[in-house]
Every structure is written in structure tokens, then in C-alpha cells.
Write a structure and sequence with these properties.
Number of strands: 4
Helix content: 55-70%
Transmembrane segments: 6-24, 61-79, 114-133, 197-219, 226-243, 249-271, 278-295, 301-321, 333-357, 377-404, 411-429, 449-471, 497-517
Strand order of the largest sheet: 1-2-4-3
Keywords: Membrane, Transmembrane, Transmembrane helix
Radius of gyration: 28 Å
InterPro entries: DUF6541
Strand content: under 5%
Number of domains: 3
Shape: globular
Largest sheet: 4 strands, mixed
Number of helices: 28
Length: 688
């Protein structure tokens, strides 16, 4: 079983890396840059490809989408070959690179770059195995809540319709679902296995590589900080794991994983004195990143925009004073920065007030924390996990202080503080003020906490770097003072020993709860995530679809096949029957259609024998069977033996299915086990 997940993960990695990597290399990007930027480029290519295939009426299967994704690379590669044959120079290829090496580390800069990439993937993979895969229990495990039912059904519908478009019925960002469908199409694995495999790829490769890209862009020429970025980028427990539990917000996990790379491309785009070809390529990259964010989850665009506002203000100011520091130039820079902030505020208010966004902006949320608690939880990065990460939080504070002292890096601190501000407002404020500031994220502090976690990484890197440098200097002073034998233990060796030991201690205490520490500072966040993952993925526990019901669905599939329409009450767990067993259940989402025909089935199907309108409705929907996974008294969500999903369940709206039993006219009992039943509709059997 786990080998199938590993195979699916390898296919998912190929789909999210290879098309983008090939295109980036064709555009003269360096190898390291192509590695870290390839996922966001592949995502954009996939988003555009599935829409084009949908418009052309070409079925979406893994190989048709892959060919469409690779087509731009062939075109760009052919153009490059023609230019080379015409004698065009490509000597500037090395300039198209995120990783700039400083004068002091030219010899080992390349090694540190690849070390950063390798460490980010290795540590991300280790955390994925320890935290995620070891907790879910099975490759086919899934969270059994409201959003998860939609995700599972949506992927299955894509596979059956061979259409991965996000525009089939209005716009719904379905890029995560499209990749899961491609993996399932390529491997033959179930959509549930493909989902877990792709989530593992995101956590192990997509997010770490994207985060390293941002760190390398913010600290160009500082390969030491880039290497530390590879170590630290997955050390904040909140992201991506908590979003895989709340919702689960898989689309936001994917979008926020792309976000650092998108920000990095914009920063590279607007850097001064960049060659024209350099700027053009990063302009293309930024547009592709925007497409990826749009089709993954549009609120990531707002998160990236908020983060970039201080950077743009700084660039406007710096652009005015780069030719001199006269008061006139400074005043001009400040004026431009202020005018830009006013423009942003005006556009923000206009969008928040627009009619088409009102359902999003005014979405009701609870406010579980007061202002002081919100600030406290934001400081030590627990957010809603209730597991403080004191070491990481302290390092971020040190990093903020260090960056405030670095010219050209102060904007990073203000960008992070803006992210924290939005989280604090969402979790502790109420009313129109919160809707204005956080409405683009559905006023959801979970998403905003995730965005803050993503953008905390550069500060964490700067804080760790500052602490290690301080420890290194102290170690050097001690070594010089004690005058140890330089052949056995020089000051340089002592500095390296202290730094490596401190780094290992940080990684251990940040990832594993140590029993000898006081309880108030023992937890790290990862233990809380593992506990919640174990609880929410436990199909043998209190989920609406338990192990016995899964076994019963296998019997139902053997009895009726995959084509017959089965009326069901989705809150008893049968909502997942389409995803798990390919059963053609009538209600494969928790929120059912509200037309008259479906309402007749939901409210009055039990009266089919003597109610002609109900019989006509059932015939119109081609209902042949009725499935109950919690029959009789157990259909009450409060019953002791019930496995009903209680959230949003209104028992009176499902009487048409709940009240059917062995004595109901018009139905014949086919399968019975415990409180699980399968009935045949008699008119369907007789052909009437």
C-alpha cells in the first residue's frame, strides 16, 4: 500500500517539477534557479493547459496535459536554437539566477546553494514522514469533514469527466484537484492515495524550494543565510500541516507554497540596473506565478500583495535617493511612497466594497482570542495550535532587530508585521473593521496565520544567523583566551563546533518535545500536529465513515455495480462512497442541490409507493437503490451508536431516506448488517 503512495508521489513530483524545469532551462535560467522555481512554473503551465484542452474538447488525462505543459518549452527551445544558429550570444545566461555569490564566498557559494536546496528537501521530507505520513495510518486515509467531501468528490468528477478545468461551472480554483487527478490518471491509484501523495510532494519539495527561493532573493550574495534558509524553512509547525486539518484547505496549502517564489520573482523583476533580458524573463516568471496563485487559491495573491507593499514603498524611496541623499530627493521618495500606500488603500477599500466580493468579505467567523492573547500567540507562532514555539519566536524577534539595522532589509520586518497584524485582527476583532482588513481571506485567521508562518522564514533565518555569529565570536574569544593548541583545537575549530552544536540543539528542541523541560515550554507544535492528525484521520474512531461501513460499501459495490443511482443520506458517511468505491450516490456532497426534484427525494422518498410526484422525481433522477449507513434510531446525530457527521446536519431535511425501513412499501431489503441497509426501489426492478 505505501509503495503505491511512494510511486504516486514520484509521479506527482515529476508533474510539478519537470515541465517547469525544462522551460526555465530553455529560458537560460541557471540550474539552481530552475530547481527552486520549477514547481510554480509547472503549476502555471498546468493551469493554462487544462483550460485550453477543455475549450478544445480534448480529454484531460495525464499524458495529454503533460504534452500541453511541455509545448511552450519546445517552442522556446526552438527559438533559442534558431538564435544560436544566427550567431546570437548566450553569454548572459549566468545572470538569470536567484543565487548571487558574494566576493568572499565565490569558491564555496555554489556548494552552499546546492546544500541549501538539498537540506530543505531532506528536512522537509523527514518532517513529512514523521509528522504526516506516520500519523494518517493508511495511504488512503482522509479527513472526514465538510470540505474534504467536496475535495474527494471534485477530484473524482474530474477523472470521470476527463476535464480538469477550473471554469466548468463558474470559477473555482481547482489546481490542486487537477494535479491529484493527473496523478491518479497516471498511476491508477485511487484519488485518496493520489491526494496524500501530492500533499507529501508539496510539503517535501514545493514549499521548501519556494521558501529557499525567497531567502536567496532577500539575502543575495549571502550563501550562509541561504544555507540556513534550507534548514529553517520547514521548522514552523503551523504551515503547511494545520491547513491540512482545518477545512482541509488543500488549495490554500498549494497556493501558499507557491507564494514565496512568486514574491521572489517580483523582487528580482524590479531590482535596479538589471539587464533587459533579465528583467523580461523575471517578468514572465512573475506573470506565470500570478497564474499559478490564481488557479490554486486567489487569496494568496492578496497575501503576496500585502507582503510586497513595504518592499515597493522602499524601492520607490530608494530609487529617488540613489543618485544622492539631498533633502529634495528624500522628500520626493517619501512622497512617492506615501502616495503609493494611499493608492493601495483606495484600491483595497474599493474591492472590499464591491458587490461581487461581499459574500467573501462578510463571511462570518468566530473571534476566539482577545487582543493580548492574539499578540502572545502570534509572537511564539502557536496561532491556533496552542503549542508555543518559543525558540523560533525568539529567533524571529532577534531577526527583526538585526534586519532593522541592515539597510535595504528593513522592509522585510514591516512586511512580516503586516502579516501578523492581519492575523491579530482576524482572530480578535469583529465587525466592519475586520471585514475591511481580512475579508479577502473569508476573515479566516487560519489562512492568515499560515501566510504569516510562510513570511516568518526570512526573519527566522536572520535571527539564527545573528545568534550563530555571536556564538562564533564568543567561542573565538574563549579559544584565544585559553590559548589552546592550534593543532588540536584552534579558534576556528571551536567556532565551528559551537555553531554546529547550537544548530543541532535548535533543530532538536524545535522539532521534538523534550521531557526534562518545563511543560510550559516543552511542546514544539509538531507534537500537537501529530496528535490532531492521528485524531482526524482515524477512520476506526468517530468519523462518519468507519471501518465497518467501508467494508459494507464494498458489499454494496459488488451488489449494484458503479452505474446504478443510489439515493443516500450523505451525513451518515455515504457522501464519500463515490470517492472510495466509485458508487453513483445521488448526494456526493454535504450541501445537496435544492431543486424540487432532489427535495422530493430528500423529504419524501419513503412515500414513493403512494405519492406520484415522488415517484416521478425518483424516475427523473433514475434512483434504483437506497443506502443507509446509520439506519433507524442511529440516524439521529445524538444517538450513542450513530456515526452521523453532526456539523450542518438537520435530521428533518432527510426524512425521505431516514424513515425507510424493511416495512416501507416500494422498497426491498437487499443487504443488512448492523445499522447498515441497502434497499432496491421496486419500480426500478419491475421496469415500470
Amino acid at each position: 500500500m505505501w509503495s503505491g503512495l511512494l510511486y504516486s508521489a514520484c509521479i506527482g513530483l515529476s508533474l510539478i517539477v519537470i515541465p517547469g524545469f525544462v522551460l526555465l532551462r530553455a529560458m537560460w535560467f541557471s540550474l539552481p534557479s530552475s530547481c527552486v522555481l520549477s514547481p510554480v512554473v509547472s503549476a502555471a503551465l498546468a493551469a493554462v493547459s487544462v483550460e485550453i484542452l477543455s475549450v478544445l474538447g480534448i480529454p484531460c488525462v495525464w499524458w495529454t496535459v503533460c504534452l500541453a505543459m511541455l509545448l511552450p518549452s519546445f517552442v522556446v527551445g526552438a527559438f533559442r536554437c534558431v538564435r544560436c544558429r544566427l550567431g546570437a550570444s548566450v553569454d548572459g545566461a549566468d545572470q538569470i539566477c536567484l543565487f548571487q555569490r558574494g566576493e568572499s564566498d565565490k569558491n564555496d557559494g555554489v556548494k552552499r546553494t546546492w546544500a541549501a536546496i538539498a537540506m530543505s528537501v531532506a528536512i522537509g521530507g523527514a518532517i513529512c514522514i514523521v509528522v504526516y505520513l506516520s500519523s494518517i495510518g493508511s495511504p488512503e486515509a482522509f479527513v472526514q469533514n465538510y470540505d474534504s467531501a467536496f475535495h474527494a468528490t471534485h477530484v473524482k468528477e474530474m477523472l470521470d469527466a476527463q476535464n480538469y478545468s477550473s471554469l466548468t461551472s463558474g470559477f473555482y480554483p481547482s489546481l490542486w484537484h487537477a494535479f491529484v487527478a493527473m496523478i491518479s490518471s497516471a498511476t491508477g491509484a485511487s484519488s485518496l492515495v493520489a491526494a496524500n501523495a501530492f500533499n507529501s510532494v508539496i510539503a517535501t519539495f514545493v514549499y521548501p524550494l519556494s521558501s529557499v527561493a525567497l531567502v536567496a532573493t532577500i539575502f543575495p550574495g549571502n550563501s550562509r543565510r541561504v544555507a540556513l534558509g534550507g534548514i529553517c524553512c520547514t521548522s514552523i509547525a503551523y504551515f503547511p500541516w494545520r491547513l491540512m486539518l482545518f477545512g482541509p484547505l488543500y488549495s490554500n496549502v498549494l497556493a501558499f507554497s507557491f507564494m514565496p517564489a512568486a514574491v521572489a520573482c517580483f523582487i528580482k523583476l524590479v531590482l535596479p540596473d538589471a539587464p533587459g533580458g533579465y528583467r523580461l524573463r523575471f517578468g514572465i516568471m512573475f506573470c506565470l506565478s500570478g497564474i499559478a496563485l490564481l488557479f490554486a487559491q486567489p487569496n494568496a495573491i492578496f497575501s503576496a500583495g500585502v507582503y510586497l507593499v513595504p518592499f515597493i514603498m522602499w524601492r520607490l524611496y530608494a530609487g529617488c535617493i540613489q543618485n544622492g541623499s539631498e533633502a529634495k530627493n528624500r522628500f520626493k521618495g517619501v512622497t512617492l511612497a506615501v502616495l503609493f500606500s494611499v493608492l493601495v488603500a483606495a484600491v483595497w477599500i474599493a474591492l472590499a466594497s464591491s458587490q461581487f466580493l461581499q459574500a467573501t468579505v462578510t463571511y462570518a467567523r468566530d473571534t476566539p482570542l482577545c487582543l493580548s492573547d492574539a499578540l502572545k500567540w502570534a509572537f511564539h507562532l502557536s496561532f491556533v495550535l496552542r503549542r508555543p514555539q518559543f525558540i523560533a519566536g525568539t529567533l524571529i524577534a532577534f531577526g527583526g532587530i538585526a534586519l532593522l539595522a541592515e539597510r535595504g532589509r528593513r522592509w522585510v520586518v514591516f512586511s512580516y508585521l503586516l502579516s501578523i497584524l492581519l492575523y491579530v485582527v482576524a482572530v480578535s476583532f469583529d465587525g466592519h473593521f475586520r471585514e475591511l482588513l481580512t475579508g479577502f481571506w473569508y476573515n479566516d485567521y487560519h489562512r492568515l496565520a499560515a501566510a504569516a508562518s510562510v513570511f516568518a522564514v526570512p526573519l527566522l533565518v536572520a535571527g539564527l544567523d545573528s545568534c550563530l555569529l555571536l556564538l562564533s565570536r564568543i567561542a573565538g574569544l574563549i579559544a584565544d583566551r585559553i590559548q589552546c593548541d592550534p593543532k588540536r583545537f584552534s579558534a576556528e575549530k571551536m567556532r565551528k563546533t559551537v555553531c554546529i552544536s547550537a544548530l543541532l540543539l535548535l533543530m532538536i528542541t524545535n522539532a521534538f518535545p523534550l521531557p526534562f523541560l518545563p511543560p510550559s515550554i516543552r511542546s514544539t507544535g509538531f507534537d500537537a500536529v501529530r496528535f490532531e492528525l492521528n485524531d482526524m484521520y482515524d477512520t476506526a474512531g468517530v468519523g462518519p465513515l468507519d471501518a465497518e461501513e467501508l467494508a459494507f460499501l464494498d458489499r454494496v459495490e459488488s451488489e449494484v455495480g458503479n452505474e446504478a443511482v443510489i439515493a443516500n443520506q450523505p451525513f451518515d458517511g455515504s457522501v464519500f462512497a463515490y470517492a472510495t468505491n466509485d458508487l453513483n450516490v445521488l448526494f456526493d456532497r454535504y450541501n445537496p442541490p435544492t431543486d424540487e426534484v432532489h427535495d422530493a427525494v430528500r423529504f419524501e422518498l419513503f412515500s414513493i409507493a403512494d405519492n406520484e410526484e415522488v415517484a416521478l422525481a425518483a424516475r427523473e433522477l433514475s434512483v434504483e437503490y437506497v443506502l443507509q449507513l446509520d439506519a433507524g434510531e442511529n440516524a439521529n446525530g445524538n444517538a450513542s451508536n450513530s456515526t452521523i457527521y453532526a456539523f450542518a446536519y438537520v435530521e428533518d431535511t432527510w426524512t425521505g431516506i431516514n424513515e425507510i425501513d424493511e416495512n416501507t412499501p416500494g422498497f426491498t431489503l437487499l443487504l443488512s448488517e448492523g445499522d447498515m441497509r441497502l434497499y432496491r426501489v421496486d419500480w426500478a426492478d419491475s421496469g415500470v
